[in-house]
Request: fold
Amino acid sequence: MIFTSGGIIKMFVLNKITQLAFVMGMGALIAGCDLSTPTHVGNNSKTPSNLVAVSYSALPGWRDDDVRYALQAFRNTCRAKIQYQGSVIPDPELLREKCNMLPSASADVKTVRAWFESHFQPYQVYNESGSDKGGKFTGYYSPVVHACRTQTAKCSVPIMDTPTDGRKYKGVDSKILVKNRIGRVIYWIDPIDLQDMGSATLILEDGSKVKVNVASTNDLPFNGIGGQLKKRGIRPEGGYTMKAVRAYLKEHRALAQELVDNNPRYVYYRAADSFDVIGKMGVKISKIRTIAVDDSIYTLGLPVYINTSLSDGRAFNRLMIAQDTGGAIKGWIRADIFFGVGDEAFELAHGQHATGKMFVLMPKEYTYVKPR
Reply:
């Protein structure tokens, strides 16, 4: 299907289920509800100085974006148990009220845009230094990778489920966790595939497929393979994109294992009941509508408008929902765009390294952040 962003047309294959959601979605309009008159008023906490209220006209391409897709992603936010944490925290009662006042799933784009404008105030995000420069927008995807039920020469890294036997894993280095099998091994994979794997579809030796989602981590810092190569003065042909790094590691397999071992962060997985991609909030995330953000700053579930570009230079102006996190996603003007599942999504995600601006949308009725 063709999608439009800021007047720029680009080909994406959108899942038919997403299309049907506009007709069959769960968030029917509440009968007799006046969407322009909220009943709850927030707590008037102080807004940090690096967040500046702006009008919707300041959001590049706002009127060209089909925000119905963002509304469907926001419905998933409303189904989740939102964890109110970080520096930018909406009043819980007020955000719950928004979830109870959603437009009909069959509402047209004009109605949905008006609903967001009526209920949310955009704030441009600046760095703490007061600059809007230095914003970074990368991409991620859910890979489809080969895996094994038992350890082999190629499948040498265990995927483990979270320990249930009482053994400590928080704050324990990944090498210790793996060596001592602190966790139940569910599958084995190639270390090259582990470098960028979050939620994933695994293809086993007999051709069958299984889905795994992130269950937990050991909470240690993330030391990415690309950064390790830079520190060693190694530059793969094509630079430090996921595609270039993967190609390089295939030719240097011993180094791949060493770099994986040098990352203290360990991610635990659990087998999934469906092939939906599940984010940090525990709900399905949406292709080119979900972003991962720094949850030490932002409460997950918030609408965020981003003004950046795709890997081919085309404009990407779009209302997203902050529904996920990532070990390398740190900072105020920083987001990771979810591009979907499989090879097509990989091609889009691997080259996504762009600057841009970011606007967080918060309920209008109050200044919205918890003081530090």
